[in-house]
Amino acid sequence: MESVELKFGTSGLRDTVEHMTDRECYVNTRGFIAYLEGSGEFKKGDLIAIAGDRRPSTYRIKRAVAAAIHDMGGLVDDQGQVPSPALTYYALCNTMASIMVTGSHIPADRNGIKFTKRSGEILKSDEPGILQEVKNIRTQLNAAAGKDAPFDAGGNFKAAILPSFNKLLKAESYTGKAAAVYIDRYTNAFGNRFFPQGTTIFLYQHSAVGRDIVKEIFERLGAKVFAPDITIGHEPLRSDVFMPVDTESVSEKTLGIFKKILTDNDIDIGITLDGDSDRPLLAYRKYNKGKPADNVSYITGDILGLLAVLGLEKLNIKIDAVCVPVSANDAIEKVCKEKAIEFTKTRIGSPFVIAAMNDSIGRHPGRWNVFSWESNGGFLTGTDLTVGNKVLKALPTRDAVLPLLSVIHLIVTSRSGVAEALKTLPSRFTHADRKKEFPPETSAAIINYLTPKDVHDKKELALIKKRVEAVFLTEDGFGHVREIDYTDGIRILFDNGEISHLRPSGNAPEFRNYAIADSPERAREIVRIGIGKIIPMLASCAKPQRKTKK
To answer: Which of 32, 80, 122, 279 could potentially form a cystine with 274 if both were Cys, beta carbons 3.0 to 4.6 Å apart?
Structure first.
């Protein structure tokens, strides 16, 4: 098999499992540690915490990561199977770097590696330095290739050296003390009477690495968690086989499980998480008890984040600044403007929102509470928060627990229900989906086709507008193009207030379509037309650039 060099996506390294060979994972991890060493964040003898999700390839990749740490003179602190935010929080509390092996929500034939420095997630500004060190390590290994090389022709560790590297890891199903530290973060800040008596939620566990940890958090805060280990149709609600669950592009299968359980068991709220448990999903019954399953819906991640800060505000936590990606619902900006909250839009991906949070904090010394979240629901806190007389320490990485706790507490204490809480927000609705197995070169060609070389050239802008309106047809309900935002992909604002946002995935061969409209039905229709009709039309219009032979 031809060797493929791993590349950074939206957040971390991602690729197919066959391309994430022992050699590639080892080389990239050593490059990351060499970068830390050069920047004064690592020295020989330092601990580096590692963990992973429940994918079948994760343990093998963790072994390559551990081997790289060992060969760089570091000590492996294997936290086993814990959520990404739990690992990051544990590492930040102990002033160490950490490495999470996870492919998040994507299928099991892909995986990834996410690096975190002592000071937090790596940013896009760190990537060039890391890649240079990776290049240096690769050169060293190539020079040392031969019978003494640790890898075979396929890039896998030779059998003779595997036993020594296996000793660096705990058992595959091990759960480290990072889990307890993460649980204590919430229980110490909110207390065992946080939820009123009688609060009941359904937890869809599937193969989420944080399923037991999240269950314990909610129970220790006073909620009753209904988490049955049963099968509905052919779908187990708790599985030892990895199940890709996306909290942003919610499948009919996932929503169907919530409809069945909430309706049959007379429960109003259900939750779940993605594979590495840093993205939340909250489903709810729209109307009163006893209504049919069609009354079950879910809150999109961007609106969940907005409700989360409103819930924190109800706990007397001041909201000073909010940073969200450009794909998020524009209702967030409207609410922030009404409340005089500093608002920033960024490119999509946690490194960009973290950079924006850091910038906001840097411009406002002293007590300044900064929050951010992504459209997938992952919620980040840039500063320590005071909750009564307790402190909830900052966690500047995607987290699924805090937004779920905050929103559910807001709902059950107000006794208004989720649907009523949503009615207090501007009536703007988002939907997202993606065209799978979409060639990256075609994605790039579409973006190039709709992007002017000179944003000040009126003739070129008019041509781009004409190209857009040639596929976004009035017969499909689209208005005239009012504005095009190139912050990240192609975000088209129409004169009827609707938005269609086209963007290649940074993590997989997919082309994403986000939509915002005045009704959930129209938002879904925009995406349906986009995926089924507009993207194929654009693909036929745009021509991928052919690679020239050297």
So the answer is: 279
The pLDDT assigned to 505 comes to: 85
pLDDT in tens, 427-437: 999 998 999 89
Tokens standing for 401?
């627990």
- 7-166: CATH homologous superfamily? Alpha-D-Glucose-1,6-Bisphosphate, subunit A, domain 3 (3.40.120.10)
Instruction: Give residue-wise pLDDT tens across range 123-146.
Output: 999 999 999 999 999 998 888 766
- What are residue 360's phi and psi, to 5 degrees? -65, -45
CA dist 492 and 502 (Å) reads 8
80, 184, 224, 226, 458 from 217: Cα distances, Å? 19, 8, 11, 13, 56
d(CA 529, CA 517): 14
Contacting residues for 171 by C-beta, under 8 A, at least 6 apart: 80
Task: Say how far apart CA 380 and CA 362 lie, in whole Å.
Answer: 17
7-166 and 181-301 in the same fold: yes
Distance in angstroms (rounded) separating the CA atoms of residues 225 and 202: 6
What pTM does this model have? 0.92
Domain 181-301: which CATH class?
A: alpha beta
The CATH number of 430-541 is: 3.30.310.50
Nearest to 116, CA basis, from 105, 132, 135, 102: 102
Range in 1-5, 491-495, 504-508 the model is least confident about: 1-5
Write out the catalytic residue numbers.
104
Give the integer Cα–Cα distance in Å for 31 and 50: 16
DSSP letter at 108? T
DSSP 143-158: HT-STT-SB-TTSPBP
* Band of residue 1 on the pLDDT scale cut at 50, 70, 90: very low
CATH class label, 313-399+410-417: alpha beta
